[in-house]
Design a protein that fits this description.
With 230 residues, this protein is mostly helical. It contains seven helices and no strands. Helix 1 packs parallel to helix 5 and helix 1 runs antiparallel to helix 6.
Length: 230
């Protein structure tokens, strides 16, 4: 019977952007709403601030992801261009370099030289990209995908506290926002950990504690500002 292995490396690009975006959407929007509510602002002001924060946050996430991942892609492309030039100009040196890499990984010199020679004949640039530069297709940066994923994830995460603020009575708005955001953060942490094959409890505790801290600090600032301006 064939042995099937399930790996999650190919999920790294979109999974990181999705988890980061949704987590940031929940924390940013909920913290903003909690801070404004703690300042005794009216319901309309709370919803306006939350809506503006949601849109601004989603756009900020999209732009920052596109720029950062795009810079990573440009850097990798520059490395590949440089490596291609070196292969054209110094093929013997590059072959020796590849052989040395395999020797350091545990192969004998004779076997390392054979492997390097055969891989060079098959796809020299691919071999150097993978084994010298650490560039593989499964983790190749995709700026547009990362930007879209982050924006959609942020909007999805931020929609929950915004919805709670729209329907919850003013008397219980703060605890309702905090409780719903924490539940969502822990759930997100569990889902992200399971999707990526990481420890579930550690991920859930990490996002829950940091989310609670963010909302507590924002509420304190909002309360102080509210008192100072009243």
């Amino acid at each position: 019977m064939a042995h099937r292995e399930t790996h999650r490396t190919d999920r790294i690009g979109w999974l990181r952007a999705a988890v980061h975006g949704a987590n940031d959407g929940i924390v940013s929007t909920a913290s903003l709403l909690v801070g404004v509510a703690a300042a005794d602002a009216g319901h309309a002001a709370i919803l306006t601030a939350g809506s503006a924060g949601l849109v601004a946050g989603a756009m900020s996430m999209a732009v920052s992801e596109y720029v950062s991942v795009g810079s990573q892609a440009d850097s990798q492309q520059a490395d590949l261009v440089r490596e291609r030039h070196e292969l054209d100009m110094q093929p013997d040196h590059e072959l020796a370099e590849l052989t040395s890499i395999y020797v350091k990984r545990g192969l004998s010199l004779a076997l390392a030289a054979q492997v390097a020679s055969e891989l060079t004949a098959h796809d020299a640039l691919g071999a150097h990209a993978r084994d010298e530069l650490g560039i593989i297709d499964a983790t190749a940066p995709q700026p547009l995908l990362a930007a879209l994923t982050s924006a959609v994830a942020f909007s999805s995460g931020g929609a929950l506290p915004l919805l709670v603020s729209a329907v919850a009575p003013s008397a219980v708005l703060l605890p309702a926002l905090a409780a719903s955001a924490l539940v969502a953060l822990v759930t997100l942490g569990v889902l992200g950990a399971r999707t990526g094959g990481a420890p579930v409890l550690k991920a859930a505790m990490r996002v829950g504690v940091m989310g609670a801290l963010a909302m507590a600090l924002t509420a304190a600032v909002g309360a102080l500002v509210g008192v100072a301006t009243s």
